[in-house]
Amino acid sequence: MDTGQEPLYNSMTKMLGVYIFRQFIAPYQEINPIKNKFNIVTAFRIVFDRYPNNLSELWNKEEWIYFLLDVKYKLLTNNGVICLMIDHSKYSKKNTNNIIKMLKEMNADFINGGEIIRLNYKDIY
Question: Domain of 28?
């Protein structure tokens, strides 16, 4: 998932032949359905979980659950995984900790010192 606004990322994925699903992500906004589902969905350097009028305010648990369930049912195969890299380095850590707690409750794997979060289809509630 990507916005298409990062030239280096666009060039690398094109060179590798990786399909990029482009869509603006907002709270409680449904993801457009697609024909073929994926074994893996990645979203790196995530900033879509911030409110445009207040960048330090992050999505709450319910908004994240809505997003993850939408990804689960519209984009992932039954054995699929979603890998996330949340970019909150300059913003609120308070809500980030709540999201990490929720993801741990879903049995998420935290890779590379917790920098990357991997969540299996079957564990997204």
Answer: 7-123
Tell me the C-alpha distance between 99 and 65, whole Å. Answer: 10
Distance CA 51, CA 12 (A): 29
Tens of pLDDT, residue by residue over 32-76, are 888 889 999 888 777 777 777 776 677 888 898 999 999 999 999
Residue with tokens 């305010």: 57
Give the C-alpha separation, 32 to 30, whole Å.
Answer: 6
Q: Measured between alpha carbons, how far is residue 120 from residues 7, 42, 71, 100 in Å?
A: 30, 12, 11, 15
Does residue 36 belong to any structural domain of this protein?
yes
Residue 103 lies in a domain: yes
The reply to whether 2 falls in a domain is no
